[in-house]
Design a protein that fits this description.
With 465 residues, the chain is an alpha+beta fold. The protein folds into three domains: 166 residues, no CATH class; 94 residues; 159 residues, Heat Shock Protein 90.
Length: 465
Amino acid sequence: MLNTLSGRFLILTTVFVMLAEVLIFVPSIARFRQEYLQDRLERAQIASLALLADDMLETELEAELLQNAGVYNVVLRRDELRQLMLASPIPEPIANTFDIRNATAMALIRDAMMRLARPTNEVVRVIGEPVRDAGLLIEITIETEPLRAAMLDYGLRILVLSAVISVFTALLLFWAVRYLLVRPIKGVVGYMQRYAQAPEDARGIITPLATVVELREAEEALQQMQVELTHALRQRERLAQLGGAVAKVSHDLRNILTSAQLFTDRIEMSEDPTVRRLAPKLVNSITRAVSLCESTLAFGRAEEPAPTLTMVPLYSVVDDVVAGETLAEDSGLVTIASEVPADLVVRADPEQLFRVIMNLVRNARQAIAATGKAGTVLIEAGEIGPDWCIQVVDSGPGLPMKAQENLFTPFQGGTRKGGSGLGLAIAAELARGHGGQVRLNRTGPEGTAFEIILPKGDGALQAVV
């Protein structure tokens, strides 16, 4: 009970209400003391007026008037004349004098607290103003024991009432907190527990229903997190399935490509100059395909292997990409060109760099071909400070907004119907393995430009995916 939110709220409410009542109690008890003394002054004044009406009161009647007033003697000052109106023997010397005519609130509180803290009976003098302008002042002498007893009784009644109010208020707040806060929070916790048991089950995703703004925001945040997590889990499952499929396909495809390699050896012996010129590129393409099958796809069952960094002539890698994509271009609409300096050497894994550039060029080529209009894909490269920069620029239609938001996310960044959306994701991962990055430089109706940034320093060796 004490460890629950509602239980602690109940205790804190009770404590705070009692604290507020204590702060009210102190000035209240001071006010009660002032009213008690004022009442005694009024009674004494009434008794003195009875004496003024009849100067020949008997001693027994005078004593009865003093007893009814609760005082020992009464002094009334009228017209600058101080007159002892009623008197009786005082059992002990006067201990203190209190003037309540112009007493401040702090003085009244101080005197009241001192009287509560002092249980000894004393005789004190009290000075006040007569009612109805019956004189300049009135003085009485009284005992403090009846005053203290009346103050204790009054204080006890206030404390009991305060306790009842505190408990009642705390119970109301306890019920309100349990109904308005604790119950909705438990509902959210229940959704979280059910979702944790079966995150792939969409029925476990919370439906925001709270009317309290903060709880509503919490439910909406939880719903968004659950939706994104469910989507990520499904995507991960698809990737795992893809990895299993690729592992099976790569085994058989590797054998087929190995056989194709044997046939290319005879093709190189052909006397046709065109065949002899294209045969080495065909051999390189088949060799890369065999290597790719042996390592399996990066987003399948296994992760991409660490790059083997060497100094690579960039022109030769780009030339292979241009040749391969030019042969694959059967629409006759796309022109693929390279403006890479022949002497530019970069630090990279040649096979992985080939795949990065190839994915970018192929995406650009397919995007232009899908429009049915002529266009160009240009590969440029250079050095910018501590990095090598390779640019793939096309004159295509540009990337749609949805593709821009999920550029490097597997299965979501595709722009072509039937595409897998893996090309950019593979390129980005391979670039990160080199310590670099692939980024979108610009896109729009005038075309799209991607940049491949490769660091020159040894920091590239630190980033193995």
